[in-house]
Design goal:
The two termini are about 30 Å apart. Strands 3-2-1-4-5-6-7 form a 7-stranded parallel beta sheet, with helices on both faces. The protein contains 6 helices and 7 strands; from the N terminus they run βαββαβαβαβααβ. Helix content is about 35%, strand content about 20%. It is an alpha/beta fold. Helix 1 crosses helix 6, helix 2 runs parallel beside helix 3 and helix 3 packs parallel to helix 4.
Amino acid sequence: MKILVIGGNGTIGKKVASHLNQKHDIIIAGRKSGDFLVDITDIDSIRELLGSIPSLDSIICTAGEAKWDDFKDLTEEDHYIGIRSKLMGQVNLVRIAQDYLKSRGSITLSTGFLADDPVIKTTSAALVNGAIHSFVKAVALEIENEIRVNVVSSGLVEDAYEKYKDFFPGHNPIPMSKVINAYVRSVEGKGNGEIIRVYH
């Protein structure tokens, strides 16, 4: 399969891309590096990217950001960082990609366990992750051409544990192999509208 990995040089994306590259043709896109550059907050950038890669079978998105801060300090504009980037960036990716993917293709989005198990300073990120989960379940009912849409929601991954462990006291790091397998399940399996949780 020809698979586009948006965010393919990030912590999770680079491991997923490397694993899938053993069997598939992998194309990496990112905001700052990759085979192609893309800004998922810009629909024209998404459209230009997808128009440059013919005959795509699958898209994985591990990109998107959200603001972390105490709730009392979060402004409306702070919330819009995550809404524009991680939420609407991935929603718009699905919206645009349906016109470019091959029939029976797949789109795999990314969230995290904050949707189900938030900690302090993550109100905005939790809001965005939960919204994506609802979106995936709903859009799978309507998207045409037998395109499948799933989302991988992982816990704190091993490769990011040292950087973020102080935010998550008592949380066990998730092996990268488990996270990679969740993306493999989404891409190579037949599931649709699934929230693939990797929390343990």
